[in-house]
Amino acid sequence: MKYLFDQIINRKHSDSIRWDKYGPEVIPLWVADMDFQSPECVVRALRQRIDHGVYGYTYASQSLKESIQAYIKRQYNWDIETSWIHFLPSLVTGLHLSVRMLTDVGDHVLIPGPAYHHFRDAVVGAGRDYSIYNLPLQEGRSTFSISQLESLVKPNTRLLMLCNPHNPGGTVFTKVELASLSQFAKQHQLIICSDEIHADLILDEGLQHIPIGSIGGVEERSFSLMSLNKTFNFPGLGLAWVICPNPQLSQQLLKDLHTLIPSPNLLSYVATQAAIEHGQAWHQVLIQYLRANRDCVNQRIQSISGLSMNHLQATYLAWIDASQLHWDNPFEQFLKAGVALSPGSQFGNAQFVRLNFGTQRALLEKALDRIEVACNS
Ligand SMILES: Cc1ncc(COP(=O)(O)O)c(C=O)c1O
Predict the structure, then answer these.
(1) Would you say the CATH fold of 54-277 matches that of 4-31+280-376?
(2) Given ligand 1 and candidates 95, 118, 232, which is best to mutate, with the most ligand atoms within 8 Å of its CB?
């Protein structure tokens, strides 16, 4: 079947961070954006807004908040109030704010590992003490262990950071796992900051994303950071939001909003609302395409001697174990072979690489051929 997503879009010379970092011969499968155009409904809405010609200071409308409220109900069956939604220019801003605004110097934070590098950057940048809780493999998927968390928690631990679905590794945490985490947080009086940017990139049929605040009993001490930037592929527009049911907590978190932290740009509001209201069919086809790409990557990686990966439940970011190749730096070796991946060191394990398969199948297969040649040579 020919998919819309098979169409090659030339991204060179569009000042793309992903496409312009390495030479023209390198296939760039690193930073997490996709090579697909956003849905037509988004492009149309942006075009219409651009044609207006006046781009003054703009607020997030009540109608956008209501669209998000309806989206959260539709996607996750979670009833929220529009007053719980607050906008940020990026999700990373939310991670850093969480550490800086909700903890003091001398406090301790629990962060996952290996994980998206901004979890560690946020605690190191703020000069906070931290411990990394690992996600050991249990029955083929990486998940946290409450007994390990119990061994790491300290009297001065204030904040627990979660990435759900997890990047890298793609774990979608279950209700039972999240309930046990919530129980742990309650017992130790911790706040949970949950990065849920990959919530709508679940590839396994039958799995469901569960926002942290929808788990009973932890609404007062948790908040979700969300965005449609990844799902509908407009991260360059920049918009994220916090859903925080506890007004005291959101006040503490967002004290610097609109002073130190700028408002999102007006086009990001337009794109998000169009995606919510008209992007559902596009999203369904995207998931089918990414699922087939995931299966293609999985099958090829398992067939290459020295490489392995676990089944990825969500995201378009495969976490590949290259330790059996006994190379000092797998990232460098693959780069020499003409494929730019993300070095595993960025997430906490240099023997891994992360591969972004949010691209056209033909390009993905070419990159996998190069990877295979590098491993066999
Ligand atoms: C887990 C996670 N959080 C946040 C981000 C970045 O979000 P934003 O571009 O909105 O800052 C990424 C991007 O890869 C991510 O994987």
Answers:
(1) no
(2) 118
* DSSP 8-class letter at 314: B
- Annotated domain spans of the chain: 4-31+280-376, 54-277
What are 273-302's pLDDT values in tens digits?
999 999 999 999 999 999 999 999 999 999
Q: What Å distances lie between residue 158 and 122, 185, 249, CA to CA? A: 14, 9, 13
The rounded distance, in Å, linking the Cα atoms of 297 and 356 is 10
Q: Report the amino acid identity of residue 132.
A: I
Q: What is the 3-state secondary structure (H, E, C) of 117-158?
A: HHHHHHHHHCCCEEEEEECCEECCEECCCHHHHHHHCCCCEE
**Ligand 1 within 6 A of 197 CB?**
yes
pLDDT class of 60 with cuts at 50, 70, 90: very high
C-alpha gyration radius of the chain: 20
Cβ 270 under 6 angstroms from ligand 1: no
The best mutation among 17, 230, 319 to test binding of ligand 1, ranked by most ligand atoms within 8 Å of the C-beta, falls on: 230
> Do the beta carbons of residue 278 and residue 345 sit within 8 Å?
no
d(CA 161, CA 117): 12
Decide if 221 contacts 72 (C-beta within 8 A).
Answer: no
CA nearest 142: which of 313, 355, 301, 325? 313
What is the length of the chain?
377
What spacing in Å lies between the alpha carbon of 92 and ligand 1's midpoint?
Answer: 6
How is domain 4-31+280-376 classified at the architecture level of CATH? Alpha-Beta Complex (3.90)
User: pTM of whole model > 0.85?
Assistant: yes
Its CATH class, for the domain covering 54-277, is: alpha beta
pLDDT band for 1, please (50, 70, 90 cuts).
very low
Task: Give the CA distances from residue 84 to residues 243, 247, 249, 294, in Å, rounded to whole numbers and listed in that order.
Answer: 5, 8, 11, 35
